Amino acid sequence: MTTTQNTTRNRLEHESQFLQAVSDRVNRDNGAKADFKRALSGEPEHIRRVYPFVLLDVGKTSEWEQEHIWIPVACLSVYYPQTLRDVEKQRNFGYSCHRLATAGADRRFRALLDLALTDIRSPLTALVRQMKSKEIAIDYPKLLADLRQWEHPNQYIQDQWARTFWGTPPSSSDETEPTANEIAE
How many domains is the chain partitioned into structurally? Predict the structure, then answer.
């Protein structure tokens, strides 16, 4: 395993541990789940209500990164929970968008790729809502790791997502992945 692979694996493990801790805290707390859903709006008073559930496990990140990356993705993961897959099996968000396979999703995805991180919350939430309605899997740890690199000058994350979205048709084995409802049963 190369140094880059180890770094990616370690990063995704941190993201996975964070999301698992959030999930464990809100698992049986419907009030907390409602707080996370309201926090998707981005309103400061709603975001503050989820601090007790997320700030303990974020680690050494800036307040800006917490507000624009960690908290929004935690909110999405509570809104549409997913089983955390092994690090090696995680796919980027472009793959999940590809599985939507609609003209509207294509337009939204194109627009998403051109957005700054500060503007991504609402379009990202809209896509996740569509994915939830169609029971399309999302790898939130990979989404967290990717968003942390979103502002990189080379835009390599956007390039990876685009290549996955337009270059990779879903395989037949992907069609049999468990849905969120099957996982919850």
Answer: 1
**CATH number, domain containing residue 127:** 1.10.520.40
Residue 184, domain member (yes or no) = no
pLDDT tens for 88-109 read 888 999 999 999 987 788 899 9
For residue range 116-152, what is the model confidence (pLDDT) as tens digits?
A: 999 999 999 999 999 999 999 999 999 999 999 999 9
Q: How many CB atoms lie within 10 A of CB 165?
A: 23
- Quick: pLDDT tens for 160-174: 999 999 986 545 444
| Torsion angle of the four alpha carbons 99, 102, 108, 113, in this order, in degrees rounded to the nearest 10 | 50
Q: For 102, list phi and psi in degrees, rounded to 5.
A: -130, 160
The number of helices, as runs of H, and strands, as runs of E, in the chain is 11, 0
Residue 177, domain member (yes or no): no
Q: Which residue range(s) make up the domain with 130?
A: 1-166
Chain centre distance of CA 104: 20
What's the CA gap between 155 and 135, in Å, rounded? 29
CB within 8 Å of 71: residues ≥ 6 apart = 39, 47, 50, 54
Residue 70 CA: distances (Å) to CA of 3, 13, 19, 155, 179: 25, 14, 9, 20, 24
The rounded Cα 125 to chain-centroid distance in angstroms is: 9
